[in-house]
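Researcher: Next sequence.
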Amino acid sequence: MNSWNHAQSAARKWGGVPEDYIEIEEFIDSSKVSIGDVRHRALYHHTEGVWLCQRIFGRTITVAKKNGHGTVEVPVRLIAERHIQEDLGWLPSPADYLKNTPVEKWMSGSQRKEVPLSTLLLDQPTYPRGPEYDY
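Model: Next structure:
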């Protein structure tokens, strides 16, 4: 399901229009920018992603009631949880995504990668040298 479909689903459930929900729905799916397959869900489609949505978008959003008379406050956490449940059928934790990930040496910091200094300095600007330029 794409972000727009999630926003339409939320509007049917709580009221308002899809545009009221689209920013939250697009944020949850924004990891598609980095990972173009279902693994993108490991970044925000879990319990911590739900709390992150609340930190970014606030505890509630205000939308028009379904009957068109007045407004209603919809908890952002419920919107995010519904998105994830529509995609996955349940609400996992980050640990659920990581439990089968092999532990690599670099993850503990015990295996360092060395990058030659010359590689790091290739695109650095040059500055004039001399005592008048020492700050």
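Model: Residues 128 and 134 are 10 Å apart (CA to CA). Residues 3-102 form one domain.
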